[in-house]
Design a protein that fits this description.
439 residues; alpha/beta; Rossmann fold; 2 domains; 6-stranded parallel sheet; 45% helix
Length: 439
């Protein structure tokens, strides 16, 4: 559960009780001393002067930001100093913090998965870009802090962030979207987890201007990184085309937990099909509509999507199909239901974005013993690894494997999960080779 780091009354007490002796002595034995001392002396002097004005203007509700910034920086410095004294690792993660509110998103599922790879005692400092002024610190627990800042910072805040990152053992960046360019100046070991081909993805979505802005940033990050974490061998080849022979690791996109089947199509006498995901253009929802219409006489359909009303947009006939259920659900609810289905749909086109990817939903289908139905098999490494599937055209025409053949496909696909698990173990071992400096 997220907790605000400093309720307003605590801010007042801390600001007024902080002294120069505190600044000089609190972190005297840590290599973080200069940061903590500078934060204390420079910021506290200013906030003591302005806090009274803050209170009179708004009771601290709207204009206490600089006081919170000051205290937040001190808290982070204190946490880093304590971790260093106790010999614990300090990880700087460039990403928003994962929470119970955002874990339905595959991006944050991966962030949590990587977080769980680090030692339980490691201090994680999540740096995230937001449209704010200054710096806001949030404490989730003793091992997790989120430091939110703008991507355009005043010089003193930029220096503070660089010094903070330099005091850590590892910088781990999730996606090019979370680049803080000042941190590229640090000497700390730097890992970029690409997640996907971002510039090409933006072009596919029609945002060519944003793609042109991020392409040079991606190149800068790839050049700076000591290691590139990829979700597939196909992405490794993509990285090699972009940045030459970089040190890489293959870390599949999702947790790999095989789920017990709790439903048999043979026993029920009808096939159950599922789609989980959004309704974006690249999901080919109109094609899915056509398949549902063609098979509704012998297939029960369930669609899990954050936007049920959008799923029916431009498809009036869909609401007349009695054995079609369209609803939103949490990630936990979807994972609990998946083993009851026989076929899961992923209708991606042949495109570099899909060819280098490792879709979370495809891994989840395999974990649940759900046979994938695909438009294109050129998705990550799955075809090369030997994954078996049903083409969408065959499914629409009723060319569906019989029960015995379907069970054989599911058993084969369990072997794919074992191969992905082996990749995961190797990648984690590489990531955890933490050296504070790459000499």
């Amino acid at each position: 559960m997220q907790n605000d780091l400093f309720p307003y009354e605590d801010v007042k007490k801390m600001i007024y009780s902080t002294s120069e002796d505190f600044a000089n002595n609190a972190f005297q034995n840590s290599r973080f001393f200069h940061i903590a001392r500078n934060v204390s002396l420079l910021w506290i002097k200013w906030t003591k002067k302005t806090l009274a004005e803050t209170i009179s203007h708004s009771g601290g509700k709207n204009h206490s930001f600089d006081a919170l910034t000051c205290v937040g920086k001190i808290a982070v410095a204190e946490a880093v100093a304590a971790a260093r004294r106790e010999g614990r690792q300090i990880i700087c993660v460039l990403s928003p913090m994962f929470t119970s509110q955002n874990l339905d998103d595959g991006f944050f599922q991966r962030v949590r998965m990587v977080d769980n790879c680090f030692d339980n005692t490691a201090l994680r400092l999540y740096l995230t870009i937001k449209h704010i002024d200054g710096i806001i610190v949030t404490c989730y627990d003793d091992m997790h802090y989120e430091i939110a800042c703008s991507d355009t910072l005043p010089m003193e805040d930029e220096i503070w962030l660089i010094r903070l990152a330099d005091a850590t053992d590892l910088i781990y960046q999730h996606s090019i979207y979370n680049t803080l360019q000042p941190l590229l100046k640090t000497k700390t070991r730097y890992i970029i987890d690409l997640h996907g081909a971002v510039p090409e993805e933006l072009i596919m979505m029609g945002d060519k201007r944003k793609a042109e802005q991020l392409q040079p940033i991606q190149q800068l990050v790839l050049n700076r990184a000591n290691m590139v974490v990829c979700v597939s061998q196909a992405m490794r080849r993509y990285v090699q085309r972009q940045a030459g022979d970089k040190d890489t690791a293959i870390l599949p996109c999702s947790e790999l937990n095989i789920l017990d089947k709790n439903y048999s199509a043979e026993d029920a006498g009808k096939i159950r099909a599922v789609y989980t995901g959004g309704v974006q253009k690249w999901q080919n929802i109109s094609l899915l509509h056509s398949v549902i219409e063609a098979t509704s006489s012998f297939v029960d359909w369930t669609i899990y999507t954050p936007s049920p009303n959008e799923f029916f947009k431009g498809w009036k006939r869909g609401k007349k199909i009695s054995n079609l259920v369209v609803k939103s659900a949490s990630h936990e609810e979807v994972m609990a239901a998946l083993p009851s289905f026989d076929y899961g749909f992923l209708l991606r086109d042949e495109h570099v974005v899909n060819e280098v990817s490792c879709p979370t939903k495809l891994v989840e289908y395999l974990c649940a013993g759900v046979i994938p139905v695909l438009k294109s098999a050129k998705i990550g490494d799955f075809k090369d690894l030997g994954m078996q599937y049903v083409s969408v055209l065959d499914f629409a025409e009723g060319n569906i494997p019989n029960f015995i053949r379907a069970e054989n496909i599911k058993e084969n696909n369990k072997l794919i999960l074992k191969k992905l698990s082996q990749q995961r173990v190797i990648a984690i071992n590489e990531i955890l080779k933490i050296d504070r400096r790459d000499e």
